[in-house]
Structure formats: C-alpha cells, structure tokens
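Write out the 3D structure for:
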Amino acid sequence: MGWGRSIRSIAFPTSFPIIDLVSDKLSDDSTEVADWKRCHADFVSEAPNRTGIRAAGTGHYIYRDNPQLVILSIASMYSKTLTANEKAEVLDRAVEFSLKGFSQNKSR
C-alpha cells in the first residue's frame, strides 16, 4: 500500500489544528517519494488551520536535525490553548530556547 492510500485511511477532524513537518532530504526521487510529498501537501490543503513546513536541511529525524523547529512548532500549537499571559510566557521561552540553540549551532 502506498503512502497516499495509507494516510488517507486515517480521518483527521478538519477542526484540529496541525503543523505538518516534512523532511527536506529524502534518499531518492522515486515515485513513492513523490507520492509521499503529494500526500502531505494534499493533507495540509484540506483544512485552513493546517500548516505545512518543509524542514530545510533535515532528514528523517527532524527533531534531531532541527530541534528548534520542532520546539517552536510545539510551543506555537500549545500557546493557542492558553490565556494571553500564559501564551506570551510560553512563546518568550520558546524564542529564548531557539536563540540559544541557534547560537550554539553557529559556534560549532
């Protein structure tokens, strides 16, 4: 079963907000990879509260290759469930974490 058919069999409510992170570095340009990319694009286009992000420079383990992107994505989604003050605090912490991460990556 191809990626598209497998993912399409899972029903996600369109009211559920999603950030769909997709790896940038794939091992080949096969038809299966093209189907996989198309499946993600179709999934994101099905609801206005879904965001697709191509995780530049990442492989299969996005969280290893770009932890700042993953943390910011989680913080962004979580912050939408909070009060204004709580949201500001979570987003401030996420930005601080990311700045530290970026500066550590640049110094290596």
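The radius of gyration is 16 Å.
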